[in-house]
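Example for reference:
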Amino acid sequence: MDLHELEAIAERELAQRPRLRILYCSATGCQASGALEVKRRLEGLLAETGRQVEIDVGAVGCLGLCGRGPIVRIEPSGATFEHVKPDDAGEIVAALDGHACHVARCDQDHPFFTRQLLIVRRHCGLINPDRIEDYIAVGGYRSLYHVIHEMTPAEVIQAITRSGLRGRGGAGYPTGLKWATVAKSPGERKFVICNADEGDPGAFMDRSILESDPHLVLEGMAIAAYAVGAEQGFIYVRGEYPLAIERLQKAIAQARRHGLLGAQIFESGFNFRVDIRVGAGAFVCGEETALIASIEGRRGQPRPRPPYPAESGLWGMPTLINNVETFANVTAIIENGPEWYSSIGTEKSKGTKIFALTGKIRNTGLIEVPMGITLREIVEEMGGGTPDGTPVKAVQTGGPSGGCIPASLFHTPVDYESLAAVGSIMGSGGMVVMDEHTNMVDVARFYMEFCKDESCGKCIPCRVGTVQLLNMLTKLRNRQAHASDLVKIEELCELMRETSLCGLGQSAPNPVLSTLHYFRHEYEELIGAEGDHGS
């Protein structure tokens, strides 16, 4: 495969594409709502009328408004329909000829769409994730070719560093610095790992990327491997994502067949192989050292750091670990330049971030927004507020590791530093909205129960601390607690944060501490009658 062959595939794909296309979202959310039956009905109607050649019914990835699936879009008009039922197929086909269509449409002028800036999700809804030809037709694998033939590994790392890209898995560590550390670390072999063990409740960003644009992640991994000197990559994806796994398997096979993965990529001396490892659903395996242990066939438990994986990771070799969204940003940086990327966002938080907007919100789904946008813009403008118009009480960011931010702080910009300043974190991108009917003690208890169940049990502060915190929150919820118990809860939270082995135990107290800080009155209202005198 060379650049001319790549361009020929793109030209051939575009030339053969029918002018009229009916595109349906084939991601998990829409499939669960009946998208495949809608597709079959559309194909059947076109076959009956002999129009299946001139009109293509094509699968695409996530169109964003996940709570309103199945979603169908007509091209080139761009008309997008929501809550599509199989019986709506006739009206949608008739609409191709200009006839009236009474199927509900998505308002493309709504802030949910207009306020987004698509970098990672730029191909979602445009390409068929099962066809490498679709990805190549929108410019896929050009960045990899450019890197291999026109840049040195050091220049690639410099570009990523200048872009200001930070890890999208939650910690926000500078990506270029991590790549540079792996590149200079001595070792017989080096590895690249894509962390797709997305486990936060309410989060589905990485799943959507893998289901909608798997080649984007593979190309980003290959560029990273070239930069750090690795020839083997692994994608660690949770077993609860069968569609993502299926599409990754297809994408890897297609890339190998076209010479875009494997040996002598683009007729160069660069080799890179990617294999999939399926996780068993342990939340702790999102922690990089626990993930490495799982890939090695051992129990998924974290180990003390240092040494960090960049110096001693998989089988003791230097290992680069980034999450799905981090790798998915790489090709755009190479294509458009680091200065372009660094011009987006804030001084310390560059680029865009994908959030899964869920909970008591009118517009449920995925959004990609520039760093620095405020919580109010996301929740009230893009999200549309609560479905029944009741006031929004709080939003929780960062999953079980994050905090609950009250509506009074919705002027807070969404970036790493600002969210940390109000007691939360960016996390991988979950954003759960709560209305005035939500009890914040119940929220804290829910996340503590989750962390208790997911603790690997290796260290005492996490293994015992999560159980004790859950017991105290339950005691409080049953109105059996004393005022002194609130002090004990805070002390135990601080102990866990300071002494737990890994990020799970260190951050598990965050929902408790943030709700205690901003909604303390809800805790105090549950103190028992004898609370003021209890010890």
In short: The mean pLDDT is 94. Residues 460-477 form the longest helix (18 residues). The chain has 23 helices and 13 strands. The first strand starts at residue 20 and ends at 25.
